[in-house]
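Supplementary Methods, section 5.1.

A reviewer requested that the exact input to the structure prediction be made available. We therefore reproduce it here, unchanged from the version used in the analyses.
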Amino acid sequence: MKKKKVVLYFPRVFSDTRPWKSIPLALLAISRILFKDGYDIHIVADFLFKDYVKEVVSQVQGSMCLGLTCMTGFQIYDALRIADVVRASKPDLPIVMGGWHPFILPGETLMDN
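The structure derived from this sequence is encoded token-by-token as follows.
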């Protein structure tokens, strides 16, 4: 039986070329639960891949959804940008947003998405 694939993206923290090299704890926490339920988890962050946008688009092929986490600031901008790129290539793929920004400003997040 093939595992259900989920792609999780950790958005850029800064708008310039400085990568934020940090462990995406929120994504790891969610991954643990999904992994225990038999899901195949793929985490993408900008500092892990030379072309992280291309990597996200590649990884969502064959996946059941894309999960994004983001804080208010540049992360929400980057998360929405990645969502737009993925939506252009896979319009029917569910995109789930979590993190502080969607939690605090759900209406604004939905309007931008």
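The CA atoms of residues 35 and 41 lie 7 Å apart. These observations are discussed further in the main text.
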